[in-house]
Structure prediction request, 602 residues.
Amino acid sequence: MSAAVQIESRRESHARLLTFRDRVNELLSKQLTDLPAAPERLLEAMRYALLTPGKRIRPLLTYASAECFGLALEAVDDAAMAVEIIHAYSLIHDDLPAMDDDDLRRGRPTCHKAFDEATAILAGDALQAFAFELLAQTDSSASQRLRMIKILAQACGPAGMAGGQAIDLAAVGQDLSLQQLMHMHRLKTGALIRAAVLMPASLAGVDDANLEALTTYGDRIGLAFQIRDDILDVTGDPEVTGKKSGADQALEKPTFPSLIGVDSSNRMMHELIEESVSAVECLNDPTLLVALARYIVSRDS
Amino acid sequence: MSAAVQIESRRESHARLLTFRDRVNELLSKQLTDLPAAPERLLEAMRYALLTPGKRIRPLLTYASAECFGLALEAVDDAAMAVEIIHAYSLIHDDLPAMDDDDLRRGRPTCHKAFDEATAILAGDALQAFAFELLAQTDSSASQRLRMIKILAQACGPAGMAGGQAIDLAAVGQDLSLQQLMHMHRLKTGALIRAAVLMPASLAGVDDANLEALTTYGDRIGLAFQIRDDILDVTGDPEVTGKKSGADQALEKPTFPSLIGVDSSNRMMHELIEESVSAVECLNDPTLLVALARYIVSRDS
Prediction:
């Protein structure tokens, strides 16, 4: 492929990914409009956390994975929403005073600052339940949907996101090895990212070799994503990232740059991305998955 | 039925319910033993909250409902565990400093006192995910299982338990009408109790008339259960209840006794129980459901 064709193809992929973002944003804002019996303030807090403009990386991964296996986007709309809802809930809880005690998220006051702590805890709790409700709302392809629920629930549980956050909190002020740091992030952010790409695969009923390829892809971009986050925390512009600079250091959190330096972190991130791209080369149509992997390392926020 | 036969029959029902309690206790303690990738302290907090001796009312309701429709107990083991796991998670979060700020639960330090606040939040979060994972762990009767997940997720969400807790917190120091108080409890405790009896019914594929009967049953015992809790808070022995006496009053929470007095509350509770019993008379074998309804109003803790 010539350089010009490559650039054109990347531009097309990027444009397609942006349509996915619009799609999930529209779906999410519809979902949280009428829930008759729910108290208004709680719904407001859920909307506040969920409908803030975000990168929507996880739903994009879900749609890109669906395209890769020739699934219609409609088939994974619930999965795309569910994974972003889980992400939104986890951010609310991570920001709480008892956790990372963050005041700012995506450039706006965090949920417990905009509302109050109790409402923030409940909004997170309710969002988690809502994600599973969405996945269970229709029983067409019931056994595939059950498998998606299992994938997502495992990704959220003690051996997934919640476990990773527990390790993260315990690691404050501690010296972690690179292996331990990677293990923590494989649970804390990696589990949900892997779930985002694996849910469509399970819906499409792909074979074990394909599942393994996707798992490797999700694992590598999950780590690369985290390294990029860590680097942005050191070198990023708070106006663009929407977060205070040096927040990790202030919290005495071990990060990739603090452990191996910014340059080595950068190198490691690019290696991981190349591994992720190689892993999915064997799949039917990995164009968008590859484009997403490249986007993850180039983003500024 | 003679009085002697009635007493004998009640004794038998009670003994059968106790075997359900043993059953769910054993299953729960097995479930939380080996989760290889999960951090130990988080698992400990989950076990601490879940494996404390409790009444296990919700799993008992699930098993009683299953028997009523001729289902094998094995068929609803996951549902029985899931509903108790959700209950345990909700207690952890309700007890948090930002919520009810309770130090004591079932006679022992609350989870955030025994561990720390962050671990308690995460243990609750992880338990919620774990409940849905359990329900999705096998795809036999996939569409019925999906319906169970939907029932449970709705019961936990903004129009269920989380919504009820939000109303409860907003009600502190406020004057609620009896209608508003009932609405709050229908969400806060009622939704999960209804889910406990409705999950087996959905597994058994019962018709709408039966579902309606069960919904009424669950609704009435849910409210009666709450009234009994409120009365125990005023008149109960802390040594037996395991909670501080007068905790609701100290928190300025509106309760049934504070609104209509202890005597009227008692009367209302007994009326609700009679309504619950009438509702399920039409069902195939409501013996255990009736026994449970009677137990709920007679309990001292």
Summary: The first strand of chain A starts at residue 104 and ends at 105.
